[in-house]
């Protein structure tokens, strides 16, 4: 009798083992959403909207108006350069414009007198032509003076460096007394990062990505209601909501057979930060069980 009980127990265990093997091989899943066993992708959180801040003007830093981590709206002043020379340039340009305007008035009066004398026959056609030419030249000089004033005002405004986008100040690299030079090879003065717009970027097998597009190769994005993922950060935080794919790279990596994809993240409390490593796990539902089976094959 004891031998028969042992045999019955052994048969039961083998049946359970076979069920587990078949479920793994052929993609059988329970009716509730479940994680794809053994399928994990390493990813990283990135900022969707980030801006490097450079200065078009050159000079000595007078004052830094923000600190690391400050939130700023687009257009907020970040840094002020010494601008005494730019102020003098504006004063000089205004004086040149006033001079050009006065000379232009004289040229108009001369042309008017020359036209009257020509009508009376007491002035030659040459004198009238010279007056017209002089007026044209003085008008051009006044236009140049106006442009010079606009340039001087722009140079002055450029000494106050503003935030190009709304976001948090990251990695300020200058302080009062620092020399700022315009060089595209230099690091930015600041970075502005919008923490409200983040995404998780990772690589998945191309076959899984194309399967998630429901067989429609003409779609340029990777979004699909059937493709959902669970995200866990390196700190152990698990995002409350599953995320669908929202985009994909143009290039396919032929060496590993994968494609880079990403999904937008909600970050209302700003606990997620760019640079965080994450583990992304596909979530399988009854509607995706058959797809998962084809991917495994």
Automatic annotation (TrEMBL):
<dbReference type="InterPro" id="IPR006143">
    <property type="entry name" value="RND_pump_MFP"/>
</dbReference>
<comment type="similarity">
    <text>Belongs to the membrane fusion protein (MFP) (TC 8.A.1) family.</text>
</comment>
<dbReference type="GO" id="GO:1990281">
    <property type="term" value="C:efflux pump complex"/>
</dbReference>
<dbReference type="GO" id="GO:0015562">
    <property type="term" value="F:efflux transmembrane transporter activity"/>
</dbReference>
<protein>
    <submittedName>
        <fullName>Uncharacterized protein</fullName>
    </submittedName>
</protein>
